[in-house]
Automatic annotation (TrEMBL):
PROSITE patterns the UniProt entry points to: HPT
CC per GO annotation: cytoplasm
Name the UniProt record assigns to this protein: Signal transducing histidine kinase, homodimeric domain
Record PTM Phosphohistidine, positions in chain: 52
Domain of life: Bacteria
Species: Loktanella salsilacus
Annotated GO biological process: chemotaxis
């Protein structure tokens, strides 16, 4: 299997987890509606991130059908995040249908299939109506969306004064510095797609930084000397900007500065934070000479030491770490542990057959050996165990499709979905 195929398989494995997270988030939102609770913004953000991550990975592998649908779904979810839409049972039902269609597109992409042009058309129409129209990606075989495969240079001159008058709309102004590393292009990425995705978050202006571009005789084909400075006016939080660079964060250098009129915004470089510029100095940033970033960060080193404890407390709880292991490796480990358990039993029998006096120390050591061997065996066997939850999530989709055909309102509920069984038991035939 080639390296690219390995990455592709890893992407689809991640899609399974993201789809599960998507279903969990939608179910959590429905539970909140049932109980009359306020909309859980964290659940909405989690649902949005799941769809956004699937779209980003699909774009890297050229899964155009999946990208177009995910983009439409993502737009509706973004309206929910920005409170342009108020969550209701009808909207949630459309989102559930969209999640089902997204799962079907992921499955088709994994198997190399292309769905019919009208697949999911009804769901897309409902998503468009919720968002009040907007840009509608074409179906396969239709006219290509204007601007999708063409690139026109964006304005180089930027006047920040109109943007700074928009504080009443709760908009924030960000300055983004972007420099691509050679491996960014080697992995099939294009900065234009990243900039286009940023433009969907608000009003974007792009400037090209030519300061590092050498003379023609010294230009290297494998080195991108061009850099970009982007200015974005958006209602989104800074985290939404970082999500755009999720898949390329190790392949480029990105700096994000938030510019506000009051207070002291921050500059984020990796895990470091420093005080940023104020609004009255915007002209210096966009037109005047640049200040070395290292010097600026150093001038605020004392501020950072005093804020370190606050930043640590504000950091979100890290997700539970997991690692993917090939089943062949797990099977081999299970076989070795099985042999260990057998050898432990043989050793006990040999000691008994040899009439070796069973002292307290020997008996204690054998018992401890047996206990450890059994514990290792159970631990290794649990690696193959999987929750039956994904299986029943697929059944929920079948129930929704049947409800549509019958014209009934159906809610699929499960009990004991945390039960774990061996991976070999998880077969689709169980749905029959």
């Amino acid at each position: 299997m080639s390296t690219l195929e390995d990455i592709r398989q890893t992407f689809f494995q991640e899609c399974e987890e993201l789809l599960e997270s998507l279903d969990d988030g939608l179910e959590l939102l429905r539970d909140g509606l049932d109980e009359g609770q306020p909309v859980d913004s964290e659940a909405v953000n989690a649902v949005f991130r799941s769809v956004h991550s699937i779209k980003g990975g699909a774009a890297a592998f050229g899964l155009e059908q999946l990208v177009r649908f995910a983009h439409r779904f993502e737009t509706t979810l973004d309206d929910l995040r920005a409170l342009r839409l108020v969550l209701s049972f009808d909207i949630l039902e459309v989102c559930l249908r969209a999640a089902d269609q997204l799962a079907e597109l992921v499955s088709a992409g994994r198997e190399g299939r292309t769905l019919a042009e009208d697949a999911g058309a009804q769901t897309i129409a409902k998503l468009i109506s919720l968002s009040g129209g907007g840009d509608v990606p074409p179906a396969d075989g239709g006219e290509v969306e204007e601007g999708l495969n063409t690139y026109a240079p964006m304005p180089l001159n930027f006047d920040p004064s109109p943007m700074l008058e928009c504080d009443s709309d709760n908009k924030s102004l960000f300055k983004i510095s972007f420099a691509a590393q050679p491996k960014l292009f080697m992995n099939g990425h294009d900065p234009v797609h990243l900039f286009r995705e940023l433009s969907e978050l608000g009003d974007l202006s792009v400037e090209s930084d030519l300061s590092r571009v050498p003379y023609l005789d010294n230009i290297r084909y494998d080195d991108c000397s061009l850099q970009w400075v982007l200015t974005l006016l958006t209602t989104e939080a800074e985290a939404a900007l970082w999500e755009v660079f999720d898949f390329v964060v190790d392949l480029c250098t990105v700096e994000i500065q938030k510019i506000v009129q009051d207070g002291e915004p921050s500059i984020h470089i990796g895990g470091c934070t420093a005080t940023a510029i104020s609004a009255e100095n915007v002209s210096t940033v966009t037109e005047g000479p640049s200040v070395p970033l290292a010097a600026e960060v150093a001038s605020y080193s004392n501020t950072q030491s005093s804020n370190a404890e606050h930043v640590a407390k504000a950091a979100p709880i890290a997700a539970k770490a997991t690692v993917r292991v090939d089943l062949d490796h797990v099977d081999r480990l299970i076989n070795v542990v099985g042999e260990l358990v057998i050898n432990q039993a043989v050793l006990t029998q040999c000691i008994t057959a040899a009439d070796i006096p069973m002292t307290a120390a020997l008996s204690s050591s054998l018992d401890e050996f047996m206990s450890l061997a059994r514990e290792i065996q159970e631990g290794v066997m649990s690696i193959r165990a999987q929750s039956v939850k994904p299986l029943f999530q697929r059944m929920a989709r079948i129930a929704r499709e049947a409800a549509d055909l019958a014209g009934k309102n159906v809610r699929f509920e499960t009990d004991g979905e945390a039960t774990e069984v061996d991976k070999t038991v998880m077969k689709d035939s169980s749905t029959h």
